[in-house]
Write a structure and sequence with these properties.
By secondary structure, the chain is α/β, with parallel strands linked by helices. It contains ten helices and eight strands. 42% of the residues lie in helices and 17% in strands. Helix 6 links the parallel strand 5 and strand 6. Bound molecules: zinc ion (ZN) (2 copies). One zinc ion binds next to loops.
Length: 253
């Protein structure tokens, strides 16, 4: 059994076809899902999905791309959303200096506000990091009691090690399966007790579906790639990554 620890099921193509999408996931042994909010509207949609399906958990947060459009009261809204059962993490938050859709100063401010919420609520965070290692490490280190996951990890092994030393998990997505990716070498050096799997669907389909819309069942291909990299069975990858997700997010399966 596998858990897709990071998916965005509120996108129309997934939401409008959800029973079939989840059936296909089940056939691939992907049975539970964390639907991650990226702004206030879709955090609310994620909460609703978690309330209508017991295998879906949810998170509430503001993605760095959405930081510039965060409503004035987003902090209050996140606190309110986090008060419901099934809300397992704060995020998706973080920094994206690759696209810089929001000004970096706004990204940092909105990220710190959410780290603060996680610290107050003693909840894990789900963070996004693209080309922002230095500032990201600096902000995480300001909140030593907070733990969580570096989702869709794309950085170096040195950065992975710093995150792990601070108590964070490393989550791999479809880009692990891309040919010639440096991430195979990174994944080999991340112990299985710190490894999580995800799709980040509808984005980033793994091989053999690269370039097509992604869906949660394809967590399976990320897990298969990890089983090659670590030279262990798929069952071992499934057991270890599922146990990690249950522990980090305190999931009641
Ligand atoms: Zn992300
Ligand atoms: Zn995401």
């Amino acid at each position: 059994m596998l858990i897709d620890t990071h998916c965005h099921l509120f996108y129309d193509d997934l939401k409008n076809d959800l029973p079939a999408v989840l059936d296909r996931a089940k056939e691939l042994d992907v049975t539970h899902f964390i639907c991650v909010g990226t702004n206030m509207d879709d955090s609310r949609s994620s909460l609703l999905l978690s309330q209508t399906n017991q295998n879906i958990f949810a998170s509430a947060g503001v993605h760095p791309h959405d930081a510039k459009n965060a409503p004035m009261d987003f902090i209050d809204q996140i606190y309110e959303l986090m008060s419901f059962d099934g809300m397992v993490a704060v995020g998706e938050m973080g920094l994206d200096y690759y696209r810089n859709i929001s000004d970096p100063e706004i990204q940092k401010s909105v990220f710190r506000d959410q780290m603060n919420i996680a610290q107050e609520l003693k909840k894990p965070v789900i963070f996004h990091n693209r080309d922002a290692d230095t500032d990201l490490i600096k902000i995480l280190s300001e909140f030593p009691d907070v733990i969580g996951v570096s989702h869709c990890f794309s950085s170096t092994i040195e950065t992975a090690q710093i995150f792990m030393d601070m108590g964070y998990y490393i989550s791999f997505s479809g880009n692990l399966t891309f040919k010639n990716s440096h991430l195979s070498e990174v994944a080999k050096n991340v112990p299985l007790d710190r490894t999580l799997v995800e799709t980040d669907c509808p984005f980033l389909s793994p091989v053999p579906y690269r370039g097509k819309p992604n869906e949660p069942g394809r967590t399976r291909f990320v897990a298969e790639k990890l089983s090659d990299i670590h030279d262990v069975s798929l069952e071992v990858i499934a057991e270890r990554t599922t146990a990690n997700a249950v522990k980090l997010f305190n999931l009641k399966l």
